[in-house]
Structure formats: C-alpha cells, structure tokens
Specification:
This protein is 79% helix and 0% strand. It contains ten helices and no strands. The longest helix has 35 residues. The chain folds into two domains: 32 residues; 214 residues, Orthogonal Bundle (MetI-like fold). It is a multi-pass membrane protein. Keywords: Cell membrane, Membrane, Transmembrane, Transmembrane helix, Transport.
Length: 251
C-alpha cells in the first residue's frame, strides 16, 4: 500500500513536470524571443556547467540556508516553548513579537549589511530574522494547544519538568515545528536570492543574476531550475523527517 502510494506520488510529479515543460515550450514558440529560450536550450545549458563551479555555488547557498534556519529554529523553538508553557513569559514577550513581526524584514537588508558587512554573517542573519518570528508564533500556539490532561500521568508519578518536556511538549509541538520548517524553507530560499545579489561571488542567487547581466538567458533559467531543485530536495527531506518522527499519525 505504501509502495503504491509512493508510485502514484512519483507519477503525479512526473506528469506535472511534463505539463510545465509542455506549457514552457509552447510559450517559447509563441514568444519566439531570446528572453524565453525553449526547455531544450536550457537543459543543454544545464549540462554545460562546470561540475566544480556548480557544486560550489550550491554548497554556498545550502550553507547559508542551513545556518540561517538552524539559528532561527534554535532561538525560535526556545522562545516559542517558553511563551507556550509560561504565562509570565507569554505576557512579557507577546507584545514584542506582535510589534516586530509585521516589520518588512527584507527592508532591513541595508541596515544589516551596514552593521555586519557584505559577508556571510549578514546573509545568515537576514534568513534568521525573517524566519524566527514564524517559528516563535507557530511553536507557541502548538504548545498552547496541548491539553493539560496530557501531563497528568507524568505529574502523578512525580516526573521532572524535563521528562514532561521530552515526552509530551516536544512530541506535541513537533508536528507544528515540521510544518513551520516547510513554510520557512520557501521563505528562506527566496530571501537567500536577495542576499546573494550583493557582496558575494558564489551562490545560486549570484549565478542567476550574473547570467542575466551577461544576457546568458539559457544559463539564467538553468540556474533558476537548479535553485528550484535544491528547494525541492530540501522539502522532500522535511517529508522524510516527518515520516520518521510522526509515525503515530499514520497508525
């Protein structure tokens, strides 16, 4: 049953992929301009990339995404759990989160670069700043949704707070955390593109913009495909983690 479902999923992905390429090819024929090359020209350009250069750009991008997301997850998880389990901390931090969350974080890019330069730190911090508020709010609400009765058995046997956290709070919030990571991945990759335009010579964002400036449109679209493929693989990785840690939802 699981294998059949997996095959159906792969088949749907393949059909969507073929459908997108068919629409793309038709649009390229209709427009008939260099700004929209056919899929065949783009895939040919993709296979012409140097192996070392391609993996160097992908490696830099992955490093920035993982570092920014890891920081956001660690801090966001800590603050969200604190707010979800403590009325005092929720009252104290709730106004801070709600006042700063609506601020357009991408507009802070010049400020972050002024304080931290054009290097890796500013790029990682921008990803962290944009993701951390989503994580805080999602984790806090997920922890609050855990009924108090879920802790009663452990309380009756005198379990410590750490045991309650490990056996009830964390599993209860894990579903929300994984869902937030899924949403955050798309946001992180979008932010990464903007941050890699400035002050770097490596990364998929830099590669795409460099191809655009050189009027290498097949190379530009090939870079976009690679960027999308990286995001797709990361998204599948989250699904794998979900299948490992959330087996109880399918039992």
């Amino acid at each position: 049953m699981v294998k059949t479902t997996r095959y159906h999923y792969i088949l749907r992905l393949l059909l969507v992929f073929l459908g997108i390429n068919a629409v793309w090819y038709a649009a390229a024929l209709l427009i008939n301009m260099p700004i929209l090359p056919s899929p065949f020209a783009v895939y040919a350009s993709l296979f012409q990339f140097g192996f070392t250069e391609t993996w160097l750009n992908i490696g830099y991008s992955l490093y920035r995404v993982f570092a920014g997301m890891l920081l956001a997850l660690l801090l966001g998880l800590l603050i969200g759990l604190l707010m979800g389990r403590s009325m005092f901390w929720n009252r104290l931090l709730d106004p801070v989160v709600y006042l700063t969350y609506p601020v357009p974080k991408i507009a802070l890019l010049p400020v972050v670069m002024l304080f931290f330069g054009l290097g890796e730190i500013s790029k990682i911090l921008m990803i962290m700043l944009i993701l951390i508020f989503q994580i805080i709010i999602s984790v806090r609400d997920g922890v609050k949704a855990i009924p108090g009765s879920a802790y009663e058995v452990l309380s009756s046997i005198g379990a410590a707070a750490l045991h309650k956290f490990w056996h009830v709070t964390l599993p209860g919030a894990l579903s929300v955390i994984l869902s937030t990571v899924r949403i955050s991945l798309g946001t992180a990759i979008s932010v990464l593109f903007f941050t890699e335009i400035y002050g770097t010579e490596h990364g998929m964002g830099f590669f795409i913009m460099d191809s655009w400036q050189r009027l290498d449109y097949p190379g530009m679209y090939a870079g976009i495909l690679l960027f999308s493929l990286v995001g797709f693989i990361l998204f599948l990785l989250v699904d794998v983690l979900d299948s490992i840690f959330m087996k109880w939802r399918r039992s």
